[in-house]
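Re-run with default settings, no changes from the original entry. Doing this only to confirm the output is reproducible before filing.
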Amino acid sequence: MPYWLLKTEPDLFSIRDLAEKNTTPWDGVRNYQARNFMDQMRLGDRVFLYHSSCKEVGIAGIGEVVRESYPDVSQFDDKSPYFDPKSDPAKPRWRCVDIGFVESWPKVLPLARLKSEAALADMPLVQKGSRLSVMPVTDQQWQHILGIKP
């Protein structure tokens, strides 16, 4: 089973928000590589929800892909912060997936801890300059993180 990591800013949308909603479209992604990763996601794939740009940066819980890639409607909404005037409804530029809630962790697993783990040295998240909001996680990385989760 493929695994993924999705970054979110918890003041906009957190693991608690996902728990309350149960499912949500993962929309607003405006990076081609991240979009391509979302196109690779399949039903049942597990995802780490990662809180970024906040006081407690790190993995906050787990979600699951509950709907595969489809056109992100926010790209066509001129009132949306994710509006893209160059996107054509006949050939949408941006995609999203729906994510369902699986579990929230009692504490965030901090980025500093992830960076300190030799087993995670190849993980894009811990590498300098990695800013992607959607990234793959290997089976070995997934299992290691589950072994050190709070």
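The CA atoms of residues 26 and 34 lie 11 Å apart. The longest helix spans residues 139-148.
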